[in-house]
Write a structure and sequence with these properties.
Strands 1-2-3-5-4 form a five-stranded mixed beta sheet. The chain has a domain at 506-635: Heat Shock Protein 90 (2-Layer Sandwich), CATH 3.30.565.10. The chain has 637 residues and is mainly alpha-helical. The longest helix has 77 residues, at 392-468. The chain is elongated, with a radius of gyration of 40 Å. It has 24 helices and five strands.
Length: 637
């Protein structure tokens, strides 16, 4: 709805002021002839302003260029009317470019040159109100529109008053004051219907704009039959006036009416008509918007497959035209459609795209940088147009320069986009890592506090019961001892899991410390000499959680087997990092064994399975009487 109102206000003010200018009917060739031949400075200033006014919507930078020429002459010759006329055109062109604060600055400059309240002063207040409305500052907009209305009540400029009435109607409607909104829109219709203005070429377009606003009011009040009636009147009037763009907007409004009524077929049919008109006008973003509206209706009616087709076509156009705010709506529609289809994976993918784009649009630095780059580009175009007016040869040279500048700025915009995209992605990645680390800490804490205390209690209670019934029920003792031993083993296993999960243990020096403590305890019990070799460079090596867990479990299994079965007197553990591999060797001088006859219970199969899970290699070299060497080679990131 806001989009339609903005276009309507732009068009309406353009037609009104254009109709009130003395040279409004001059064509481009005659204007160029005057500019090329006239020596009358006042006439030149007037013609520059008039030509700029005709161009401000379709070529705002060219309009600013000519208005600045008019302003320079007017300031030199002190032509007051042309000074504030130039400020007015520059303000309107800035407004058309979306530079609303800049437009306010130029509109306010006009007041230094108004000597009394006049229709021109009223137009300035009206223009200021429009800019504030685009900035979503309805209170400031309303204040300035009322100032314009107060002047117009005595200045007798009914045509401009009709535009102000229409703006007031839209403002009151958005504020929820439907009674005042209807009062002002009817006043606007009455003015544009007056026979006094039958000579104004754009009267039908102005009247159509009022009926369109009236239809939008009824749409918000959910009086759909009245909304449809007024929107159809607006379409007929736009058609008679030959105003194709706003005719398409009228069909879009009509489609919204039917969509709100649940008549999906009629809604789609009217959006399709609007789409075809915009296609004729070569307005890619508007074509995409109508495709989006159709996709939204298809989604509402449960036609998910067709909805995806139209949404994808709209997305392609929005992407090509860099219409990111509309692209955001497509991502939202896509994930809602996939969610309705119970396609969770695709819904999640588009939900992520929606949030990532939303975050990027909210990054103030990105917005400021893009506006700055756009201003540089527009300024460059303006400078090139200065040379273009000198001679035909200069035009060709500047066209080449413009292409180079455009290419460089495009590269700069793409570079800025890539940098910002990387920053947004990196921020998202870091947030996910922090979430994962927090989750790991929470799991470790819960296991240690809840499960650990429970297992410890089971073991303690089994020992107490064992002592209590030692003499009374000796046959229960083995069962309780087994419970105690199992609890002890589970506590040790859980301790390993807690240690593996904690992010603070990811460094190799922490892994080595746990390995050394485990091996030392077993070796001391069997009077085995333990030798550990490693390079200091390994201390700060960071090893992922799953690899760290399996590395430790392989080590633990190997040390257990060695201490239990090798009958060795010396056990050597060596660590080494080469290129992107970590090598761990466990060497004993024990009795060795035949690797082909080893029992499965020794856990060698489990060790090889853990190595294979990480694309690693576990090699066991042993023979009877020669000791055993276990080599574990694993890729590391």
């Amino acid at each position: 709805m806001k989009r339609k109102i903005i276009f309507l206000i732009y068009f309406q003010f353009c037609i009104i002021t254009f109709a009130l200018k003395l040279f409004a009917q001059l064509n481009t060739d005659s204007l160029r002839h005057i500019l090329a031949t006239s020596t009358d400075k006042e006439q030149l200033s007037f013609t520059y302003n008039d030509y700029a006014f005709q161009l401000y919507r379709i070529q705002p930078d060219t309009a600013i260029f000519y208005a600045e020429k008019a302003l320079a002459i007017a300031l030199e010759k002190d032509i007051t009317t042309q000074i504030y006329a130039a400020y007015n055109v520059i303000g309107l062109a800035s407004q058309a470019k979306g530079l609303y604060q800049t437009s306010l600055d130029y509109f306010n400059k006009q007041f230094d040159y108004f000597t009394e309240e006049s229709p021109d002063m009223a137009k300035a207040y009206h223009n200021i109100g429009v800019s504030y409305r685009f900035m979503n500052n309805n209170s400031a907009s309303l204040e300035n529109e009322l100032k314009a209305l107060k002047i117009l009540e005595t200045a007798k400029d009914s045509l401009t008053m009709g535009a102000v009435f229409q703006s007031l109607a839209n403002l009151y409607r958005d504020l929820g004051d439907y009674d005042n909104s209807e009062k002002y829109i009817l006043r606007s219709i009455d003015i544009y219907s007056s026979s006094l203005y039958t000579g104004v070429h754009s009267r039908k377009s102005l009247l159509a704009g009022s009926y369109n606003s009236y239809g939008n009011l009824f749409q918000m009040k959910k009086e759909m039959s009245k909304a449809i009636k007024n929107h159809k009147i607006a379409i007929d009037l736009y058609n008679e006036a030959g105003d194709l763009y706003n005719k398409a907007i009228g069909y879009e409004n009509l489609g919204d009416d039917y969509a709100k009524m649940g008549d999906h077929e009629e809604a789609i049919a009217n959006y399709a008509i609007a789409k075809e008109i915009f296609r004729q006008l070569n307005s890619g973003t508007d074509v995409g918007y109508e495709l989006y509206k159709i996709a939204d209706v298809l989604n509402t009616s449960g036609q998910y497959s067709r909805s995806h087709q139209y949404a994808d076509s709209a997305l392609a156009l929005f992407t090509a035209n860099k219409a990111d705010s509309y692209r955001l709506e497509i991502y939202k529609l896509k994930y809602e459609t996939y969610d309705a289809e119970n396609n969770s994976a695709s819904a999640l993918a588009f939900y992520k795209k929606y949030n990532e784009l939303k975050d990027s649009l909210n990054v103030e630095k990105q917005r400021t940088e893009l506006v700055r780059l756009k201003e540089e580009f527009e300024t460059t175009k303006k400078e090139q147009q200065i040379i273009l007016l000198e001679t035909e040869n200069a035009l060709k040279d500047k066209e080449k320069q413009e292409q180079i500048v455009f290419r460089n700025i495009a590269i700069a915009i793409i570079g800025a986009g890539l940098i910002i995209g990387f920053l947004v992605w990196n921020r998202y990645r870091i947030k996910q890592q922090l979430k994962q680390l927090q989750m790991r800490n929470n799991i470790a804490s819960d296991l240690h506090d809840d499960v650990g205390s429970t297992l410890s209690s089971i073991r303690m209670y089994s020992d107490i019961v064992s002592n209590q019934i030692k003499d009374k029920s000796p046959e229960s003792i083995p069962v309780l001892e087994k419970m105690s031993n199992n609890s002890k083993e589970m506590i040790e296993s859980m301790s390993d899991i807690v240690w593996a999960i904690k992010p603070s243990n990811d460094l190799f020096k922490n892994i080595e410390g746990r390995m050394f403590n485990f091996a030392t305890e077993l070796c001391n019990a069997k009077n085995i000499e333990l030798i550990v070799q490693k390079t200091q460079a390994l201390d700060n090596l960071k090893i992922p959680m799953e690899l760290r867990r399996d590395l430790y479990l392989i080590f633990k299994e190997a040390i257990n087997n060695t201490v239990k079965y090798s009958a060795c007197t010396q056990l050597k553990v060596a660590f080494e990092k080469t290129n992107s591999q970590l090598i761990m060797q466990i060497i004993d001088n024990g009795k060795g064994f035949n690797t082909h006859e080893v029992k499965k219970g020794n856990g060698l199969g489990n060790m090889k399975h853990r190595a294979f899970a990480h694309n690693g290699k576990l090699d066991i070299q042993s023979a009877e009487g020669t000791g055993t060497t276990i080599t574990f080679i694993i890729p590391i990131p």
